[in-house]
Automatic annotation (TrEMBL):
Compartments in which it is found: Cytoplasm
Descriptive protein name: Regulator of ribonuclease activity B
Organism: Aeromonas sobria
Domain Regulator of ribonuclease activity B: 6-107
NAD in keyword set: no
Main location, first listed in the record: cytoplasm
């Protein structure tokens, strides 16, 4: 979890240093991928039940020709490292249960 905390702190600090509004609500997008669509879908259902909005899965072809499926789970919150890391901690057991990869998170600059 320390790696995710460090990454979250770096992203938050960069956004704030660029002038993003520290008081705004942010849509935090967590990214997931898996080669097995059924497992990905089950993880999406569990994440929805855990309170996250989930996007439709998309199929992507990797550079080596392999196919993966991916989706995002989003939640609105303040740009707060502890809140973001708490959400990641809530997600990881679900992802481990289905063998789905967590591919980090992102958000958008807010004036």
């Amino acid at each position: 979890m320390q790696e995710w905390r460090d990454e979250a702190a770096e992203i938050v600090n960069e956004l704030l240093a660029d002038g993003s509004n520290p008081e705004a609500d942010y849509e935090i997008e967590h990214h997931f991928a898996c080669q097995d669509f059924d497992r990905l879908e089950k993880a999406a259902v569990d994440l929805f039940k855990a309170g996250f909005e989930v996007t439709d899965a998309e199929e992507m072809e990797l550079d080596d020709g392999a196919t993966i499926f991916c989706f995002d789970a989003t939640i609105e919150c303040k740009l707060n490292v502890d809140a973001i890391v708490a959400d990641i901690a809530k997600m990881l057991p679900i992802l481990e249960k289905y063998g789905v990869d967590y591919d980090g998170w992102g958000t958008y600059f807010q004036d």
